[in-house]
Amino acid sequence: MTEIEGVREPSIADAVIPLVTLVVLIASSLLLFGLAALDGPLQVALVLCAMVAALIALKNGHPWEEIQASGQRALSSITSAVFILLAVGALIGTWNLSGTIPTLVYYGIQVLSPTWYYAASALICGIVAMSIGSSWTTAGTIGVGLVGIAALLGVSPGITAGAVISGAYLGDKLSPLSETTVLTAQLVKVDLYHHIRRQAWTSVPAFGIAFVLMLMLGLVWGPAPTDAGDTGVELTALGDIYWITPLNLLPLVLLVFLSIRKTPASLALAAAALTAGVLGVFLQYDVARAFVNEPGLNPVLTGIQAVWQAMATGFSMESGLADVDALLSRGGMDSMLLTLWLIIGAVTFGTLLEEFGLVRRLIDPMIRLAKGTGRLFLVVFGTAFGLNVVAGDQYIALVLPAKVYRAEFAKRGLAPSNLSRLTADSGTVTSPLVPWNSCGAFMGAVLGVPTIVYLPFCFFNIASPLLSVIYGFTGFTIEKVDPASSEPVER
């Protein structure tokens, strides 16, 4: 941003006021509305916070045109997220219409045991995410099916959502196909595969901790003996409603193929959604006809209307079984509108804080106070996680610390790979733990489990940044830079 005559540097009070406003308004919305705060009150709180940040920028001499341009840049930064969210909403609708999700649930119930269900969910999502490089796509497809199976098996959807997110972010961090992994390596100027190897030192032990805890929860906090395996009615209902066949899984195969071919996520998801809709009209015509519920309509128009409606407003079913209806009656682009509203408010607020120097005003004193390596690591973690909270977007939480702390790491003889691993552990992994963050809002929306419900069970997402900070204090796996050769030397 160019220097403008008459513009004043922000004071500490300028930087603190928006954060205090955020805390007060979010706490108030949660106290007054509980989980229903996500249905509008939280969004209003974030928009008001953005207005406070804008007023402070005006007070410091920035013209309104500059503030407006900053807001426009905030919205342009989430364009891809908007289309991904809309595509996922359409995909969930058509995958229920076509029988893709019901088929995953039908087979999954017969294969997965409630005792080790949570651990298996984490492992499955980890493998899928590592293959396709996307935590969002993994959660929005496989994750939706696993949470649906959980409800029918009598195990906790909240714990299952935590397992899904743990596995999805493990794969996202260690996949060379992941855009956040590639971005982090590029920002800090580290070779991509060296960055992934360094991340394994925190990611693999963190996932091991998560896997063991999930196994323990399955043994201790599984379904009651009378509920375990009591799914015959639901299986019969799914078999009666749909023609259960492996052909229903073709949209999933297409999505994996397109993801491996590095097709943009929104295009891959939209293609999988449309394919499922067309396939569903042929394989599940009776379901499509019942969904449209217009007996006089010809088959072609019935199919078009079924696909269009499933993509727009989601699929709905009235089978007479509450669990089955809750599983199937979901999706549609309109189901993502509250989430988009949340993301727009959060990212606009975060961008204003960043571009008008309010965040940096708080960071600079912390750098001066961080005398040792451990304290520096703790400050970087606090900055990245704090940005996930106040900025509402994982990309801001990745980009800003990478820019701000890169020179400080070099000055202290710390290899750039330390910073790349730390920012990924602190920025990417913690993003789904914040309800109004774009990642937290997305996960809550697609999995149907509020963020504050699944948060305690995201063991990987909690353990990974903690291990990174512990390594900073102990010196374990910390790479130093040899001033003579500029090559990292592991300690």
UniProtKB/TrEMBL annotation:
Predominant location: membrane
Alphabetically ordered keywords of this record: Antiport, Cell membrane, Membrane, Transmembrane, Transmembrane helix, Transport
Membrane topology, record value: Multi-pass membrane protein
Protein name: Na+/H+ antiporter NhaC
Domain Na+/H+ antiporter NhaC-like C-terminal: 167-476
Source domain of life: Bacteria
Organism for this UniProt entry: Pseudonocardia zijingensis
InterPro entries: Na/H_antiport_NhaC, Na/H_Antiport_NhaC-like_C, NhaC_Na-H+_Antiporter
Signal peptide (from-to): none
Subcellular localization: Cell membrane
Presence of keyword Transmembrane: yes
Family: Belongs to the NhaC Na(+)/H(+) (TC 2.A.35) antiporter family.
Transmembrane segments: 12-36, 42-62, 74-95, 115-132, 144-170, 200-221, 241-260, 267-285, 335-353, 374-391, 452-473
